[in-house]
Write a structure and sequence with these properties.
Elements: E1 3-7, E2 15-19, E3 32-39, E4 45-54, E5 56-64, H1 66-79, E6 87-90, E7 96-101, E8 109-110, E9 116-124
Antiparallel strand pairs: 1-2, 1-6, 3-4, 5-9, 6-7, 7-9, 8-9
Length: 125
């Protein structure tokens, strides 16, 4: 499958970037429960459960062409303005997510003559 970055959504995008299946393994999609846990002076454990969870994950992409890198940078800087706007992602397994960037810097790394690596960290909304 391919990886798709789409704004505002996957079904009717105004901006869409289609990448090859270049996510490096292992891939991970962790979910974090929002809780506060502390121990009282009497030795009791108290848990405040906020009944919510948050998922933040990173896509390690390699190899990317120079055109893919330019498109991702334009998407990050111009289309969604880094963290300000939500967009949709389809990962290499076909899972769809409504996300925001969870990073303020995007940096492609050249690993070969025309092969680039890039890391995208997103927060599921």
């Amino acid at each position: 499958m391919s990886i798709i970055l789409a704004y505002p959504d996957l079904f009717i995008p105004t901006v869409e970037i289609v990448l090859p299946d270049c996510e490096q393994l292992p891939s991970s999609r962790p979910t974090r429960k929002l809780q506060t846990v502390f121990e009282t002076d009497a030795g009791e454990t108290v848990v405040y459960d906020f009944q919510a969870s948050r998922s933040v994950f990173t896509l390690q992409l390699y190899p990317l062409s120079a055109d893919h890198v330019t498109a991702i940078q334009s998407f990050f800087n111009d289309t969604v303005n880094a963290q300000a706007i939500t967009w949709e992602l389809q990962d290499s397994k076909g899972n769809e997510y409504k996300v925001r960037f969870a990073q303020d810097v995007i940096e492609p790394m050249q690993r070969g003559v025309s092969a680039y690596a890039m890391t995208l960290t997103v927060r599921v909304i």
